[in-house]
Amino acid sequence: MDVIFEWFRVLYDETGINLPFLYDAYDRNRMVDGFFTTIRLSLVCLFFSVLIGVVGAWLQGSSFKWTRRIVNGYIQLFRNTPPLVQLYFFYFAIGTMLPTVENDWGGQSPILGSFAWAAISLSFFAGAFNVEIFRSGIEAVPKSTVEAAEALGFSRLQIYRDVTLPLAFRVVLPALNNNLVNLVKTTTLAYAIAVPEMLYEANQIWSDNVNVTEMMIFLLLAYFVLVGILVGGMNRWERAMRIPGFG
Amino acid sequence: MSWTPAEPMVSLKDVHKSFGTLKVLNGVSLDVMKGDVICIIGPSGSGKSTLIRCVNALNDIQQGSILVEGQEVNDPNLDKLELRKKVGMVFQQYNLFPHKTALQNVMMAPVRVLKQDKAKAEATARALLKKVRLEGKEGAYPGELSGGQQQRVAIARSLAMQPDVMLFDEVTAALDPETVGEVLQTIKDLAEEGMTCILVTHEMAFAREVADHIYFTDRGIIVEHGPPETFFKNAQDPRTREFLSQIL
């Protein structure tokens, strides 16, 4: 491994192509941390945004007018505002209104850090789209299939969980995949509130080394590979979910 | 109120139903005793399907009374689950769960709704699929089965809930002529075992063969009814006679 890392140092000495996050242990750690922060933020947001989508679509079918109105209001708010503004809103507006806690050095820290706010903000952002995506899938499930479940004595929740959702899920997978790919890319916005994710760490490195071009090329390729892996996984999943003779 | 088999299992009294301003049922009354097989026939739009969909509360009614084993269906506090445990239904378009295999389709309601043990439900489901002559198709998805096979899975799925009465809503209307026979045979087997059946059908020969009683509906009322022999040979009402002359 060290041989490879040293090769990049030689590369820099010989050609001026500077990739310090490969030959320098300190920068390497920063990049690895950034990479895993991006992965962690993506996974947390993927999970919660899908959860919001599933629960929101269920609430949209509620017989209470106000439940439907609140869900619709949430969708409008988060779909019609820029995600960066949402992020700032959560971090600076909501964040500063919350109480602080004493930290290890006797000072005051916000109760939620920038990572938590990024996770909340981006989950709500992608969740709003996911509600609409799941709703379109639920509407595609034939009413007669739901009726058959009703006739068998299924409750509304059982019908949603065992019939509507599994069928809707298969219909919406392509649209859901699109939105989740977007979500992973949007995690770079967390840079704006100093979440040490990949873009942020890359920025730290190019500030120290003045190698903006190299870092930009690397970032572009890194996201291309990262999202490519996600898309590949999603496509496999889509194929695995296919029902023989259906759709 | 406890129900005894001496009373009608299903009893409709002066049932009125409308969709908005459209009156579909205009005072329908009929009684079905335990073990009876009754067929409801009539022209399209005469309210046949609506009539049986009211029996298991898939449609609500505006006026009148429907009793199923003494339980009033036209009641805002109706326990739909209790009702639907007693009443099975088979639809024209089968309406199987497309993401479940034949076996899973049959097992699902007993496991989820009746909270039956999985192993027990599976054994029952396998026996039922055998009964509807679908042995070997347990692992097939609905999309891999023919219409007639799907409809027989749907019948098995209903039977798995051990209903006391079965509703059949034009269950052969969407089938190819060559597969109609296998579905009708399955229903005939059930009727012979003593299952109480209410059928909406256009299969006159079948109605004549299996029904204990035929009801002819038109424009939301029962025009005429009687046992098959007298009904088909000796229809009194001109509307019945016209309908029969067109169809026979």
Name a few traits of the molecule.
heterodimer; A: 247 residues; mainly alpha; MetI-like fold; two-stranded antiparallel ribbon; 10 helices; 78% helix; globular; B: 248 residues; alpha/beta; Rossmann fold; six-stranded mixed beta sheet; four-stranded antiparallel beta sheet; 9 helices
**Biggest chain pair contact, residues each?**
A-B, 23 and 30 residues
Say which CATH homologous superfamily of chain A is assigned. MetI-like
Using only C-alpha atoms, the radius of gyration of chain A works out to: 23 Å
Number of strands of chain A: 2
What is the CATH superfamily classification of chain B?
P-loop containing nucleotide triphosphate hydrolases
**Rough outline of chain A:** globular
End-to-end CA span of chain A: 49 Å
Give the helices and strands of chain B as they follow along the chain.
Answer: EEEHEEHEHHHEHEHEEHH
Spatial gap, N to C terminus of chain B: 44 Å
What would you call the structural class of chain B? alpha/beta
CATH class of chain B: Alpha Beta
Give the number of helices of chain B. Answer: 9
The coarse silhouette of chain B is globular
**Share of helix of chain A, binned:** over 70%
How many strands in all of chain B?
10
Q: Kindly give the count of domains of chain B.
A: 1
* Helicity of chain B, as a percent range: 25-40%
Give the CATH level 1 class of chain A.
Mainly Alpha
Unreliable spans of chain A are none
Overall radius of gyration of chain B = 18 Å
